[in-house]
Amino acid sequence: MAHSEQSMKVSYTVLPDDFMRAGEASGALKKLLKELGFPSDTVRRCAIATYEGEMNMVIHAQGGVVEAIITPDTIELELRDTGPGISDIELAMTEGYSTASDAVRDIGFGAGMGLPNIQKYSDRMSLTSEVGVGTTLRMTIRSG
Amino acid sequence: MKISEIATVLEAEILCGEEHLERKIISACGSDMMSDVLAFVKQDAILLTGLVNPQVIRTAEMMDIMTIAFVRGKKCGEDIIELAKERGMVLIRSPLTMYTACGRLYASGLRGEDHGT
């Protein structure tokens, strides 16, 4: 961080199996970015990408942590969980592929669009995962 | 199109946000799949959905969608109305099916975001 005085780190906890509160972390981050004066397009892209990631953590893992490092021109996001992991990342990235349950589909998710949407809205994303250990999703969103 | 006009076209009742009915809506999307809603950004849009759960409100929040119409007369819990109120959203409920609701709005001049492409 070249200008540490201009960077800000925030962290949110995502609770497991809580479909009432799922989205709170993304909502809080969205509110913060708006207050910091980021353009609405940047705020929205960040919110959507984080929300899809947050839903994944609630659906597939036992919740996790959302961390954001915010600088004036970029938002670096890291979503970490200690869930079951993803054995085939390429397959998981395929539009339409999903392992979500019927219960998840009933609430409007599990269409296999989450990771493709994250890729679409972020400027850079990387997904690392180890089966039985967990998954880390990193995203960069540039402002403006 | 004003939200009040949309409510009339959809024969809808207002569940919350009565104070915002003069807001203008310029596009619409109808879906029960939230990831589909999240896939395309729309401006000043209304979301029509047959799905009623907190994630509908969250999805709309992320997309800056401030107006939601529940179709097929779906019952809506107080917790969902509360979430919407906190976010300054308007919720309306229409007895019409998704197909009819979308058709009526389209015929009234409200186009989807893919109109003309």
Main traits of this protein?
heterodimer; A: 144 residues; alpha+beta; B: 117 residues; alpha/beta; five-stranded mixed β-sheet; globular
Strand order of the largest sheet of chain B: 1-5-4-3-2
Total helix count of chain B? Answer: 5
Task: Assign the CATH superfamily of chain B.
Answer: HprK N-terminal domain-like
Order of strands in the sheet with the most strands of chain A?
Answer: 1-2-3-5-4
State Rg of chain A: 15 Å
- Helical residues, percent of chain B: 25-40%
The most extensive interface between chains reads: A-B, 23 and 22 residues
Instruction: Count the beta strands of chain B.
Output: 5
Shape verdict of chain B = globular
User: For the CA atoms, what is the radius of gyration of chain B?
Assistant: 13 Å
- Level-2 CATH architecture of chain B: 3-Layer(aba) Sandwich
CATH class placement of chain B? Alpha Beta
Oligomer: heterodimer
Main sheet specs of chain B: 5 strands, mixed
Order of helical and strand elements of chain B: HEEHEHEHEH
- Please summarize the sheet with the most strands of chain A: 5 strands, antiparallel
- Terminal CA distance of chain B reads 21 Å
Account of the 3D structure:
- The complex is a heterodimer of chains A (144) and B (117).
- Chain A has 144 residues and is of the alpha+beta class.
- Chain A is built from five helices and five strands; from the N terminus they run E-H-H-E-E-H-H-H-E-E.
- The radius of gyration of chain A is 15 Å and the shape is globular.
- The mean pLDDT of chain B is 94.
- By secondary structure, chain B is of the alpha/beta class.
- The two termini of chain B are 21 Å apart.
- In chain B, strand 4, helix 4 (78-86) and strand 5 form a beta-alpha-beta unit.
- Chain B has a five-stranded mixed beta sheet with strand order 1-5-4-3-2, with helices on both faces.
- Chain B has a single domain, classed as HprK N-terminal domain-like (Udp-n-acetylmuramoylalanyl-d-glutamate--2,6- Diaminopimelate Ligase, Chain: A, domain 1).
- The chains are: A alpha+beta (144), B alpha/beta (117).
- Chains A and B meet through helix 1, helix 2 and helix 5 of A and helix 2 and helix 3 of B.
